[in-house]
Amino acid sequence: MQNTLRWKKFPVLDNGFVCLVDVMGDDDAIVQAARVSYGEGTRKVSDNRTLLRYLMRHQHTTPFEMVEIKFLIRVPMDTWRQWIRHRTASVNEYSTRYSIAIDAAYETEPTAWRKQSDSNRQGSDGFIDESAGFELCEAERVFHQQARELYNSRIEQGIAREQARKDLPLSTYTEAYWKTNLHNLFHFLRLRMASDAQFEIRSYAETIGHAIVKPLFPMAWEAFVDYQFESLRLSKPDRDMITRITAAGKVPVDESEFMRLQDEAWRNLERCRERDECIAKLRGLGLVR
């Protein structure tokens, strides 16, 4: 499987890609690291799966750190800024001080311009009208062309590459090698594959997860999905609300009844994201309608 995936470019967005460069280890390497005191022995595959799921379930992370994966990625610079905030990796990025900037910029589709969310300052909510989207796309195309022509003109005039690049838009693609261990990669995927992650970086995370990590580590991926990505984390206030709702003897309750039973710390707050998140969790569990 490793040989068939290496150097295969999986497309992302319009001009981006992710590519597996190298990998050290597999599912067996994870459980072997956990059994270091007596080695792999003659354990059955089913035993490996059971142990691996136990490790994930109880957050024994060290065995997952024994596996390392190296990627080559091409990604817009603004998305790369989000990506590089995950500081648990070794990185070597394409340098526009030494090389000519990649002649590609991420272009938005007319139907893909998102509106700012009213409730989440760092998120979006819905899309603008397609006709307005066409106007934005044309303005984007003109801007990209002008920025590239300005950059090329500076290069032709002999301006240093490190200075000529300063007005390139953040939509310009960059490339980087990104090497991390499986534990930190799962943390990245849990955050960036989430439905509330920005679309662009979510597209990269989903491609990495489904196209590369899942076939390389099928048992670890299954455990990750079950115990991290699709799990539900309950806080103490969440658990207290569940106790009060079930003690009331009527399940599910409507939102007005939830508000009557709500945590004391939330009662006098007109807006409370913690409370909103609790309601959403309990709706998902069928306890609030």
Can you write the helix and strand succession as a string? HEEHHHEHEEEHHEHHHHHH
Low-confidence stretches: none
For the terminal residues, how far apart are their CA atoms?
46 Å
Q: How many E-type strands?
A: 7
For the largest beta sheet, what order do the strands appear in spatially?
1-2-3-7-4
Question: What count of helical segments does DSSP give?
Answer: 13
Q: Which secondary-structure class do the elements indicate?
A: alpha+beta
* Fraction of residues in β-strands: 5-15%
Average pLDDT? 94
Major beta sheet, specifics? 5 strands, antiparallel
CATH topology name of the largest domain, in short, is Gyrase A, domain 2
What does this 3D model show about the protein?
Helices cover 48% and strands 15% of the residues. The chain has 289 residues and is an alpha+beta fold. The protein folds into 3 domains: 152 residues, Gyrase A, domain 2 (2-Layer Sandwich), CATH 3.30.1360; 58 residues; 49 residues. β5 and β6 form a beta hairpin. The chain is flat, with a radius of gyration of 24 Å.
Describe this protein with a few key phrases:
single chain; 289 residues; 5-stranded antiparallel sheet; 13 helices; 7 strands; 48% helix
Strands, helices and their partners?
Elements: H1 2-5, E1 9-12, E2 16-24, H2 27-34, H3 45-57, H4 62-65, E3 68-76, H5 77-83, E4 90-93, E5 114-116, E6 124-127, H6 130-156, H7 161-164, E7 173-181, H8 182-192, H9 199-216, H10 218-229, H11 236-248, H12 255-261, H13 273-284
Antiparallel strand pairs: 1-2, 2-3, 3-7, 4-7, 5-6
Helix pairs in contact: 2-3, 3-10, 9-10
